[in-house]
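Sequence design from tokenized structure. All designs in this work follow the same two-part layout: the structure record, then the generated sequence. An example of the structure record is given first.
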């Protein structure tokens, strides 16, 4: 049985960094960042592009799931609404997967510090800050395992994801 880790969280919470770390910690792992499926200039959010990005994500994830070389499939994206998670899961063949839905969370102070550090390094633009902070409360409403990232390093967060996903905590969802 494969593991499918679906890791969500607001911008700057650490999804990509933790997912990259997990890729190296878990055996036979592959990683997809949802942002890679929608990296365009100019970036446009339309009904057409929203359908396209979900189709791109699900096509790649299904290919990873079907590929015998991988035991662990790691996917991260903002996913601030349950409907986004549900739509993705409905389009995946998870009959041979244990699906683990994780939401990474952080306080406003932590996000502000992380995002401003990224702005200083040229990795993000400052307009991301208010959007990210506004989404913080949305993650508490999701059917997911919540993992607080404040004051933790990447390896500690990854360890919590691994432990939470195998400990039987509520919030993960198994689809057959």
């Amino acid at each position: 049985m494969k593991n499918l880790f679906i890791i969500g969280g607001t911008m700057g919470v650490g999804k990509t960094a933790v997912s990259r770390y997990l890729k190296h910690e878990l055996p036979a792992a592959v990683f997809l960042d949802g942002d890679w499926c929608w990296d365009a200039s100019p970036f446009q959010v339309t009904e057409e592009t929203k359908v396209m990005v979900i189709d791109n994500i699900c096509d790649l994830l299904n290919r990873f799931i079907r590929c015998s070389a991988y035991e662990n499939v790691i996917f991260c994206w903002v996913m601030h609404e349950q409907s986004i998670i549900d739509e993705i899961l409905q389009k995946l063949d998870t009959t041979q997967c244990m699906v683990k839905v994780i939401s990474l969370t952080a306080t406003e102070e932590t996000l502000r510090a992380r995002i401003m550090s990224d702005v200083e390094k040229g990795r993000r633009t400052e307009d991301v800050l208010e959007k990210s902070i506004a989404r913080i409360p949305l993650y508490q409403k999701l059917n997911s395992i919540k993992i607080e990232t404040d004051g933790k390093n990447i390896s500690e967060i990854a360890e919590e994801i691994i432990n939470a996903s195998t400990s039987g905590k509520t919030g993960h969802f198994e689809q057959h």
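Helices lie at 15-25, 47-66, 82-90, 108-120, 128-135, 154-166. We note this feature because it recurs in several other targets discussed in the main text.
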